[in-house]
Structures are given as C-alpha cells and as structure tokens.
Write a structure and sequence with these properties.
With 813 residues, the protein is α/β, with parallel strands linked by helices. The chain contains 29 helices and 34 strands.
Length: 813
C-alpha cells in the first residue's frame, strides 16, 4: 500500500456478490438488480462508475483522493479485501480502514452525513444507480458555468443547483480537490499548477461541450501556449516484412520525457518553454492501438512502440487503424489485398478448365476468385457458404484454376469424412472430365508418393490421412482442401495434427459452421490455414481478458471467412418453412418420464453429496439426459415392452407421413438414434411402404441416395443425423422431419439443407418434433444461444463460450 500511495495509483478490482453468494464482475450484472443495494453501496457504485468514465468495469486505478472518497462512502462496511488475502475482509479501527487510511494523507474517514443519493428511473420503471448527469431543468435560463485562470490556477463559477450540470460538475470539482471560496459561495479554486494542467487535459472539452461552460478571454490568452500531444500510427511493408509503428508526438520532446509522464499518471509535461497535454482520449486510443497491434490484452502504454505484422493480420488491422486514425495511410500491398476482398465483384474471373465458368453461377465465380486471390497472396480461407450453395463445385473450379496455370507441384489433396469420398470423386469426374482423380481410401490405397503424383486430384478421408501420414508427410502438394472442417476444430486430435503436417502451397477449408461452441473452434481452423500467423488464446486468460482475446480471434479471422446465404445469392430458391410440432406426452409416457427424472435427480444428488469429481458427475448426468431424451422419442428405447400406441411422436409421425402421401410429398426423416430409425423402419415395413435407409453402418451410401433421387415412388428416406447430415444432394424430397432435437442447431440446419439446396424447385417444409415440458424443450432454448453465436462470427462480433457445465446439464434435467 505504501508504494501505491507514493505513486498516487491504487489498483482496485470490483466484484458484486449476488443473492446466491456468487461473485460477479460488474459488467455481467443486471443493472436493474443494483437498485436493491443499500444506499451506501449504491452511492459507491455510482462514484466508481464516474471514475470509470460512466460505465463500471472490473479493474480500475484509483488515486488517493478517489480512495479517500470511497472509504467515506463505505465507512465501516465489511467489503474491502487485500489482493494477497482475498478471503479476509480488511478490518476498520478508530483510524479508519486498517493498513489503508494511514497512507492517504487526509483526515480520518468519517461517515458522510445522511447520504441521499438521487435515484433516476430507467427504462421499464426500474431503479438504477444514482445519476447526477440527468438534467433536472432542461429549459434552464440562468447564468452559465464560467472558467477563469491560467496554467497556474483555475477558478470555476458554478451557479446554483438549478443549473442542469450542477451535480456532475460539483462532483468533478470535489474529485479534483477544488476549494470553495469563503467570500463567494459559487466560486471554486484549484491552485496546484500540476493538477491544473491535468484537469485542463482531462475535462476542458467536457465542460465546454457537455455543460456549455464559458471560458474567459483572459483564460484563453493565458493558456494559448499550451499544445496537445498527438498520437501517430504508421505501417510499412517490405517484401515479407511488415510492421506497425506508433508514437506520441509533442514537438521535439524526447521520448523519455513522455514516458515519464505516462509512467507517473500525469496528463501533462513540459519541454523547454512549451507545455503539452496528454488527453485521456489520446491515452485510450494509444492503449487500444498498441494492444491491438501487439495482440496482447495487457500491453503497456508506451510513448513509442513497434510491432511486427504478418500478412494475415494486415487486413483486419488496416480496417481497425483506419477507424482509429483517419490520417492513417496503409501500404499499397495492404490496400490491394483489402480492396479486392472488400469488393468481390472487382476480382477478375479466373481461367478455369473444361469451360467450367459457363456452369457456375455469378456468386460461385466470385467464390472461385476469392479463393484464387487468397492463394496468390499466400493466404488461406474458409468458404462458409450456407449448405446447398455449391461449396464443392466452387472448390473444384478453384483447383482447376491452379492446375491450368501449372507449377512445381501439380497434385492437390481433398480431405473429407469417409462418407463423402465417393461423392467428391463423382463431382470431380462430372465437372472436370479432363482431371485425373484418385480416391485414396479403403482397400484402394497406394503406398507410393510417385503414384500419387500422377494425379491432378487425390481424395482421402481424415482417418486414412492419419493412418497413411508417412506417405503424405513429405509429398509436395499444390493445395489442400479440408471439407467439413469441423473435423479439425480440436487441435489435439490426430486429424488436426495430421492435416497440419502436410506440405502445400496453399490451404482452404469448407464448412457451414466455422464456429459451433466458442472462438476456440475458429482458432483451430486458422492454425491449419495459416501456421504461425494466427492470433493466440492464452490458456490462463479468464473473464474480460479471455473475451478480449476471443474478440481478436474473430476480428482477425473474419476477412478470411466467405459466407453467403441462399436468400442473398439464390433468391430463386423456393421458400423454406420451419415449424415446431409441440407434442404432449400421453399419461403412461409422462409417468415413465417423471419417474426416470426423479430417479436421475436422486442419483445425482447422492453422487454430489459423496464428493464425486466433476468428470464423474458430468458423465452420469449425460447418461441420465440420454435416457430422458430416449423416452421422449419412444419409450421402447428403454422399455421394449412399452405399448407403441402410447408413443406421442410415433402417432404424430404416422399422421404426418400419411398427409405427405396423400399430397404427393416426399420426406427425409432425421434422428440421432439408430434405434429410432429401426423402429420407424419396422413401421414402414408393416405398412408395405417403400423407403431408403442410411446410418453409420450403411455400406451403400451413394446407392441409397441415387435410388431415392431417381425413383419418385419412394416416399421416405430414414437417415441418421450424423451419417447423412452432410455431403448429400436429396432435392427429391420437399419435407424434412427432425424426429428429435440435437444440441447444436447447425447440425440440424445442415441436415435440412440436404433438400433445400440448388436444384430444389418446391417449397421445403421442415418439422421439428418437441415434447412439451421435457428436456427437449430446454434443448430447443439452448439451440437459440448457439445460433446467436454463429451469427456473431459472421457479423464479426464477440463470441461467448457456450460449453456446458455440470450445473448447466443438471438444469436440463
């Protein structure tokens, strides 16, 4: 404390304890709940919010005056803790707060006399924090606030309380230790030259713009020699080397002088005959830029700094610096890359093989140009078009552009899930007949690199790549494309490690969901695309610091994600109508569900009371959730003797099925449970209805797809969500039924888009069966949160970590 007091800088962390006893940062507290706090605590929060610039933050640095004021407001309150002993409150004694008050250099902190903070009504009629910034009399006609003085002193004439800015300006003057004139009660004086300069730097514009203060001619004459320091940024790029340089400029003042002012918290410094001000706005801007350029949330504020910049960072950094400094001029190479990616229509149409440009739609040609532009600039990208817009076709066209040019490496590699290898081969042979294509998969696998080099395109699965990594590791590739890139979202998996080990001139990824749970998903994809050039997420980062890094990942990754929706680029595509079918469990099914739920709660309570660790609790909770979800689908999944007539979903399925038959519709039915599909298969067999079937054990995947697409007399296709949710074209169907909900809406959306894609000429009706008052209804609510996260990524906003804790899972039960 002694050292902090000597520097006039006391670091403080603010936490608010909710009714459940949990400590929360103020940023995460609902402002409407703060009205329930005692007067002293609400007054303290108001003071802290003013010192934070109007919005409460977790961490701030108090000066001695602010600390003294806080102790007065919270006199005898047991709410102060030392940083090195956060569990023990600091005691009060006759001298004030022990170990604190004696270093403040002021009289003992006494409780304020009958504090009566003014409470303003906020939207919705709830009470908020005391707010002195709300004008009481907006039609004020009295005298203005007047400022007189020089660089040595200030005198502020503050009219009476009828002035709309009275409370706020009075609070400001007390904070800065202005003294009231005994002869003129409206006059306030500040006679410390150092504080005068700091006050001018911090608040002259506030008084002038927010409170219409009048500054006398004498004052303006005496401070005319004062100049404001300015913040400069400059970026350079020479070959592969780029850097951003920042500096605070104040005439010919040495950097050391400015550094000393920053280190001591002063807002001014002198050099020769000149005085320079460092405004809070300049400090804030400099700190923001230096943190962003360095990629470090805790980067110190420096008078001069230099930061190396990778080619990957330049796109987002140029946009950021241009917003921060209108005078910023990016290097020509930065502008060239940014303009092309900011306006895809400006990209030239690349030369493709087999006349493929005549087949592609305009937006697809732009997608090929986008990938080509990234490749030519040594960058990679994520093609994240909505399902059904032809990511496979665009990728093949892009590979044909590279092959047409020629080069040292002529073979490209596509890595995809095993179920899509045959689909990729068919599409390549269909659209690029002059391409030589080899599917390295299953029993048809080579062990010779020279054999692979004979082909324009090699297609393999993620699992096969892991097994045959020695074959591919040192084989030079033209480009690597990872399809269904969610298989790379865990950097610790063998899939991700094997893909990262490949040598290629370029890399691209395809996925409709570049982020499913958190920004870590996107980070893993960027690590594959741009090894060594991506932002990082420190493992120790928590709270606001972690959010800062996640926001940085999204901002830097955004220029390398191309996302188009069907509404934007394929308006001719028929409408997709989504509807939730809410079903009530019948009496027997409800009784079984409640009995199982109560048993689950009892068992989990027993485990918790016995001290089981989080891993055991999590697995047991997931098991119990699985049982409840199975009962919702069909009780026979856990009780084979249960009467099928008593299953509400089976009854609804029959009604929907026969309605489709009567009206000439064809249906895709998705479930994540293979047993559900088998029960529905038995239902169709009993009704002598033709159907197609696909789950993870099926060996005739493409044959089943072809049969359904080519035979209009087959009304139903039963599909496992994981086995058939991607890589299939099933436009023969115009009804999609999700028999049971999955945690992530993206998986369901991808499945739906098997039917709602280019080539569909009928309206697609999508139904989702949800049993009321069960875990399924809660999963539906959970999906909404994940959907918002996906939207945030595509809108370059911050992402939140949506991983589920044991408590979250138990809430579902």
């Amino acid at each position: 404390m002694a050292g902090c007091a000597q520097r006039n800088a006391i670091p403080a962390k603010i936490e608010i304890q909710n009714k459940a006893g949990n400590l929360l940062p103020p940023e995460k507290c609902d402002p409407s709940t703060l009205g329930d706090l005692p007067d002293a605590e609400r007054s303290a929060l108001f003071a802290l919010s003013q010192w934070c610039g109007g919005k409460l933050t977790s961490f701030l640095q108090l000066d001695l005056e602010q600390t003294s004021e806080l102790l007065k407001i919270l006199h005898q309150q047991e709410c102060f803790f030392a940083a090195n002993s956060p569990e023990i409150t600091i005691p009060w004694d006759s001298g004030g707060l022990k170990g604190v008050t004696e270093y403040l250099g002021h009289e003992k902190n006494k409780p304020p006399a009958s504090p009566k903070p003014r409470i303003r009504e906020i939207e919705g009629g709830e009470e908020g924090l005391p707010d002195a910034s709300i004008p009481d009399k907006p039609d004020y006609k009295g005298p203005p606030i007047e400022v007189e003085g020089s660089t040595e002193y200030l005198r502020i004439i503050l009219p009476g309380s009828q002035h709309p800015g009275y409370a706020q300006v009075l609070s400001l003057m007390r904070k800065w230790n202005f003294m009231r004139d005994r002869s003129h009660r409206h006059w306030w004086w500040l006679r410390d030259p150092s504080k005068v300069l700091d006050f001018i730097a911090s608040h002259q514009e506030d008084l002038e713009l927010d409170h219409d203060a009048v500054f006398t001619d004498n004052y303006r004459k005496r401070v005319a020699s004062i100049e404001k320091a300015v913040f400069r940024t400059e970026a350079t790029e020479t070959g592969e080397n780029a850097a951003v340089r920042t500096w605070i400029e104040a005439g010919d003042t040495p950097t050391e002088t400015i550094e000393q002012a920053l280190a001591t918290g002063r807002n001014h410094f002198k050099h020769g005959e000149k005085t320079f001000l460092i405004t809070p706005e300049l400090k804030e801007k400099a700190a923001r830029v230096q943190r962003r350029a360095s990629g470090q949330a805790d980067a110190p504020l420096l008078a001069r700094s230099s930061h190396p910049v990778t080619r990957f960072q330049s796109l987002s950094l140029e946009s950021f610096l241009s917003e921060e400094d209108p005078r910023f001029r990016p290097p020509e190479q930065w502008k060239k890359r940014a303009i092309a990616l900011g306006n895809l229509s400006s990209l030239p149409t690349p030369k493709m093989m087999d006349g493929l440009e005549k087949t592609l739609r305009p937006y697809q040609i732009m997608g090929v140009g986008w990938m080509t532009h990234l490749f030519d600039n040594g960058l990679g990208g994520i093609l994240a078009d909505e399902m059904g817009l032809g990511k496979t076709l665009q990728s093949l066209a892009f590979l044909s552009v590279l092959r047409k040019r020629g080069g040292p490496a002529g073979t490209s590699l596509v890595i995809c899930p095993a179920t899509l290898v045959e689909n990729w081969k068919r599409e390549a042979l269909r659209f690029l007949p002059s391409f030589s294509v080899y599917a390295h998969h299953g029993s048809n696998r080579s062990n010779s690199p020279s054999f692979l080099g004979k082909f324009d395109l090699v297609i393999t699965s993620y699992g096969t790549l892991v097994r045959d990594l020695e074959l591919f590791r040192d084989f030079p590739l033209l480009c690597v494309i990872g399809d269904e890139a969610q298989h790379l979202k865990n950097r610790r998996t063998q899939n991700a490690k094997a893909a990262a080990a490949l040598i290629s001139e370029g890399r691209m990824l395809l996925t409709g969901t570049p982020i499913e749970n958190s920004a870590s998903d996107l980070l893993a994809l960027l690590e594959f695309l741009l090894p060594g050039a991506h932002p990082s997420l420190p493992s120790a980062a928590r709270g606001e610091e972690r959010i800062w890094y996640e926001r940085l990942i999204i901002q830097e990754g955004a220029p390398y994600i191309l996302r188009r929706t069907k509404v934007e680029v394929a308006p001719e595509l028929p409408q997709k109508i989504e509807q939730v079918l809410y079903l009530d469990l019948n009496e027997d099914q409800r009784e079984l569900y409640e009995q199982t739920r109560r048993s689950a709660e009892w068992e989990l309570d027993q485990l918790a009371s016995s001290g089981s660790d989080a891993g055991v609790m999590r697995m047991k909770t997931l098991t119990q959730l699985l049982r409840l979800r199975q009962i919702c689908c069909d009780p026979r999944l856990i009780d084979a003797e249960f009467d099928p007539i008593r299953s509400c979903k089976l009854r609804a399925f029959r009604e929907l099925l026969y309605n489709c038959l009567e009206n000439g519709h064809r249906m895709l039915v998705f479930s994540q449970f293979r047993k559900v599909l088998k029960l529905l298969e038995s239902e169709l067999q009993a009704s002598s209805l033709s159907y197609c079937y696909l789950d993870g054990t099926s060996t005739d995947r493409m044959a089943q797809v072809d049969r359904f697409q080519e035979n209009d007399s087959i009304p139903v296709f039963l599909i496992s969500l994981k086995a058939g949710g991607t890589g299939l074209n099933l436009t023969g169907a115009d009804v999609v039924l999700h028999f049971d909900p999955w945690w992530n809406p993206a998986a369901e959306s991808q499945a739906t888009d098997r039917a709602h894609r280019i080539g569909q000429n009928r309206t697609v009706n999508v139904y989702k069966m949800i049993t009321c008052g069960t875990v399924e209804e809660k999963v539906l609510q959970l999906q909404d949160g994940k959907r918002k996260l996906l939207e945030q990524v595509f809108e370059e906003a911050e992402a939140s970590n949506l991983s589920l804790s044991v408590g979250d899972l138990r809430e579902l039960i």
